[in-house]
């Protein structure tokens, strides 16, 4: 990993500070930023994607370069394949019980708020499956306490208000295995709002342990039966609209609600989401940078819209 990072940042003036600050871009000079932008422009141009002359560099965009180098060093373009396969299989076992619980809840004639509170809690449970984070996880332990956990932010009421008047919603996926728990929320939304058109975005290429179209097909995912799965075309571990395919851009533009899972999507989208009332984030805080930015604690779950804060 370090070798991959050094290969990219060896010419930067503040490389040592860059590492010490855990990818905090405030340490970069304008000259360093320009160098990185040029590397990224060339990299994406070779993949048929044209970036603007001046653009922000979220960690998720930079991660594309890092993991490209890692793949070269390892001689393996899918170093997380076995982990992803195992994560999906493990999550699928847990999912069956949660689906049965959801069916019982739906049969009780409860309010949309009560149904969706359960579904959102189970949906975010999948976000603990993250081999790209700096902390370990215990899915069994998390599954036992998720229904009682207090969220640092829990904007369910605001989310429901938008969904009630929505025709299209986009759920942007994150890690492999997490997709199994995303199904719970999608099933709940379809039961409550049968006319709602639901799209599920996946990554455009293998990166870390993020979910791709190939992963879903290889695991015979039920998502294909309950919503429209879309290969976003995005190569980074977080949705960046400029990198998306024409189809994904059009769907994203027309969506009434956007629910982005995981810190990667948060890091990529938060700045724009401040002025976009459609966007909600759902994830567990798993790194110090996001913890400090949100002024919350490691391990906290959050469900919120930056636009409403």
Could you explain the architecture of this structure?
The protein is of the alpha/beta class and 309 residues long. Mean pLDDT is 86; it is low at 12-26 and 131-136. The protein folds into 2 domains: 1-74, no CATH class; 80-308, Rossmann fold. Helix content is 50%, strand content 10%. It starts with a helix and ends in a 5-residue tail after the last strand. Helix 1 (2-9) packs across helix 4, helix 5 (81-107) packs antiparallel against helix 6 (112-125) and helix 6 packs antiparallel against helix 9 (178-192). The chain has a 7-stranded mixed beta sheet, sandwiched between helices. The radius of gyration is 19 Å and the shape is globular. The relative contact order is 0.13. Strand 2 (168-172), helix 9 (178-192) and strand 3 (197-202) form a beta-alpha-beta unit.
List keywords for this structure.
Damage-control phosphatase ARMT1-like metal-binding domain-containing protein, alpha/beta, ARMT-1-like_metal-bd_sf, PH1575-like, globular, 309 residues
How many helix segments? 14
Helix content, binned percent: 40-55%
Major sheet details: 7 strands, mixed
Order of adjacent strands in the largest pleated sheet: 1-7-6-5-2-3-4
Q: H/E series, N to C?
A: HHHHHHHEHEHEHHEHEHEHE
Number of strands: 7
User: What is the CATH architecture descriptor of the largest domain?
Assistant: 3-Layer(aba) Sandwich
Work out the radius of gyration.
Answer: 19 Å
Q: Structural class given helices, strands, pairing?
A: alpha/beta
Report the average pLDDT across residues: 86
């Amino acid at each position: 990993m370090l070798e991959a990072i050094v290969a990219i940042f060896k010419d930067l003036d503040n490389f040592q500070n860059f590492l010490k600050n855990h990818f905090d871009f405030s340490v970069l000079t304008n000259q360093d930023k320009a160098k990185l932008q040029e590397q990224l422009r060339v990299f994406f141009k070779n993949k048929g994607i044209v970036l603007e002359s001046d653009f922000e560099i979220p960690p998720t965009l930079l991660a594309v370069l890092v993991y490209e180098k890692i793949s070269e060093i390892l001689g393996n373009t899918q170093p997380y394949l076995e982990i992803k396969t195992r994560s999906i299989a493990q999550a699928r076992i847990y999912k069956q019980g949660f689906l049965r619980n959801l069916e019982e809840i739906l049969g009780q004639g409860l309010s949309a708020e009560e149904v969706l509170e359960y579904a959102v809690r189970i949906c975010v449970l999948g976000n603990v499956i993250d081999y790209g984070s700096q902390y370990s996880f215990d899915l069994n332990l998390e599954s036992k306490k998720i229904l009682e956990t207090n969220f640092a932010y829990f904007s369910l009421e605001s989310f429901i208000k938008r969904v009630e008047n929505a025709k299209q919603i986009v759920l942007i996926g994150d890690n492999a295995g997490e997709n199994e728990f995303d199904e719970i929320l999608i099933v709940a939304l379809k039961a409550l709002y049968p006319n709602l058109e639901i799209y599920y975005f996946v990554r455009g290429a293998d990166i870390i342990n993020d979910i791709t179209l190939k992963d879903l097909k290889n695991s015979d995912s039920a998502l294909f039966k309950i919503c429209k799965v879309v290969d976003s075309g995005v190569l980074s571990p977080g949705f960046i609209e400029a990198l998306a395919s024409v189809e994904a851009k059009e769907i994203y533009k027309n969506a009434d609600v956007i629910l982005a899972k995981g810190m990667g999507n948060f890091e990529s989208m938060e700045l724009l989401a401040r002025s976009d009332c459609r966007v909600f984030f759902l994830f567990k805080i798993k790194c110090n940078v996001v913890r400090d930015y949100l002024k919350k604690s490691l391990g906290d779950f959050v469900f919120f819209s930056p636009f409403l804060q």
